[in-house]
Amino acid sequence: MKKSVLMLLTVSTLMTAIPVQATQQATERRDARDIRQDTRQDSRQAKQDCRQGVFGNADCRQDHRENKQDGRDAARDVKY
Asked: Which of 11, 30, 31, 48 has its CA 20 to 30 Å from the CA of residue 73?
C-alpha cells in the first residue's frame, strides 16, 4: 500500500514539473527567435545603407554576415 502511494505521489510530482519546464523552454525559444528576427531586419537595413554608400558589395556582404552571426550568438546565449 505504501509503495503504491509513493509511486502515485512521484508521478503526480513529475506531471506538474514537466509543463513548467516546457513553458520555460518555449519562452526561451520565443525570445531567441525574436532576437534573430530583429537581427535580420537590422542587418538588412545596414546592408541597404552600405550599398548606398561608397563601399563595395563584398564589404557590405561581410558586414551583413557578421551582423547575422552576432544575432545568432545572442540568441544562443538566451536559449542555452
From this structure: 48
Task: Quote the domain boundaries for residue 35.
Answer: 26-80
Residues 6+ apart with CB under 8 A from 44: 64
The better pLDDT of the pair 54, 68 is held by: 68
Q: Mean per-residue pLDDT for 29-36? A: 89
- Domain membership flag for residue 48: yes
Burial of 75 (0-12, 13-18, 19+ CB in 10 A): buried
Q: How many domains does the chain have?
A: 1
Contact of 39 with 70, CB cutoff 8 Å: yes
How many CA atoms within 13 Å lie on the side-chain side of 60?
A: 14
Please report whether residue 73 resides in a domain.
yes
